[in-house]
Design brief:
Layout lengths: L35 E6 L14 H9 L5 E2 L4 E2 H4 L2 E6 L7 H17 L3 E6 L5 H12 L3 E6 L18 H7 L8 E4 L8 H10 L2 E3 L1 H7 L1 H13 L4 E7 L21 H13 L4 E5 L10 H19 L14 H9 L8 H5 L1
Parallel strand pairs: 1-4, 1-5, 5-10, 6-7, 6-9, 7-8, 9-10
Antiparallel strand pairs: 2-3
Helix pairs in contact: 1-10, 3-4, 4-5, 7-8, 8-9, 9-10
């Protein structure tokens, strides 16, 4: 009967929509046995123009079924080299943004506190505040943030509230990280509010525009961003707003702004940053109701895959191609025979 029912990767159009068909973990208390947790954060109460990112986690999970776990250029197989689970979505209360922020912080703090890498599927960019808060609390050390966006997102309030334009003001002012360790890539155009610019300058954030990338090149920008984000920090988180990519490639977002990154530029930058090691990544502002053939959701999936593959390649996550552990968690899994070890029930199921 095993071949009568769809199980695993094939066919790509079938099966339960977890991220990359990874195992769903019903009991989140067991997340510490794994290396990576995919977690959805379907909040869009912080949007100020077009809602829809609450469907981002669902959209990214669904189109992720198109992918295999094997990355041709790097020769990396996420299924064979990384112990990854999908823990589902954080419980969001659409009518109460502050309570939702508390829920998000609690969830991310728990996952990170268990020594697990959270890959967060947003959600609008207001989640950048509670995720930074949860990461800092769970990690317990100073962090830096590399922020991809067309918008500055450092103003104090918008419509008199904390919204998707304010996350890094509040994360910095609540001392969850120093704004001097905030690198903002892709900022520009006609949707960058002056109050946010002023607060960013006060806090000492580093802005790298599209023009800077064109003039300096990817490798020099990588070097500059890593120096700033890692200066005095023990870990770095990527907060990636999909609107940093030109809307000709990623139209499904709340505040599209022409003139953004090309997809290959974004992928290369994320992979470069990942090689240094990360403590988390979030993809925000993917809004499936405005998508065309799922291309924006697919880009969100690809960015997470790129971040995971870059870390595996550099020995920061998972295992070598021969199955040798590259992290302390993987080594302990081998010693204890837990879920992360080759031949364990979760590995077999994948």
């Amino acid at each position: 009967m095993a071949s009568t029912f769809s199980r695993g990767e094939l066919p790509h159009f079938s099966g339960i929509n977890t991220f990359l068909k990874t195992p769903f973990l019903p009991d989140v208390r067991e997340v510490g046995e794994h290396e990576v947790a995919i977690v959805g954060c379907p909040l869009d109460t912080g949007t100020t123009y077009r809602p829809g990112p609450r469907f981002g986690p669902e959209g990214m999970r669904r189109i992720s079924g198109l992918y295999t776990p094997y990355y041709y250029e790097l020769g990396i197989d996420l299924r064979e080299q990384l112990d990854m689970v999908d823990v589902g979505d954080i419980f969001i209360i659409p009518a109460n943004i502050e309570k939702s922020f508390d829920q998000i912080t609690k969830a991310i703090e728990y996952i990170r506190g268990e020594g697990v890498f959270p890959a967060i599927l947003g959600g609008d960019h207001s989640i950048g505040f509670p995720t930074a808060r949860g990461l800092m609390n769970g990690f317990g050390k100073d962090i830096g943030v590399i922020h991809f966006d067309r918008h500055i997102d450092t103003q104090k309030t918008d419509l008199d509230e904390k919204m998707h334009t304010t996350p890094f003001y509040w994360a910095a002012h609540e001392m969850h990280f120093d704004m001097g360790n905030l690198v903002q890539i892709g900022i520009g155009g006609w949707q960058v509010p002056r109050p946010g610019v002023e607060e960013g300058r006060k806090g000492g954030s580093t802005v790298i525009t599209i023009g800077d990338i064109e003039e300096l090149g990817i490798e020099e920008v990588t070097k500059m961003a890593l120096e700033v984000a890692w200066d005095g920090a023990e870990g770095v988180h990527i907060s990636f707003d999909i609107d940093s990519i030109d809307p000709g490639f990623c139209p499904a977002t709340g505040w599209p702004e022409p003139g953004g990154l090309y997809p290959r530029e974004a992928l290369r930058l994320v992979r470069n940053f990942a090689r240094k090691g990360l403590i988390g990544i979030e993809i925000v502002e993917v809004s499936p109701p405005f998508d065309i053939a799922d291309i924006t959701s697919l880009m969100g999936v690809r960015l997470i895959c790129e971040a995971l593959a870059g870390q595996i390649e550099a020995g920061k996550l998972g295992r070598t191609r021969k199955g040798e552990p590259q992290t302390e968690k993987a080594r302990k899994a081998d010693e204890s025979g837990s879920a992360a070890a080759p031949g364990s029930p979760v590995t077999k199921e994948r």
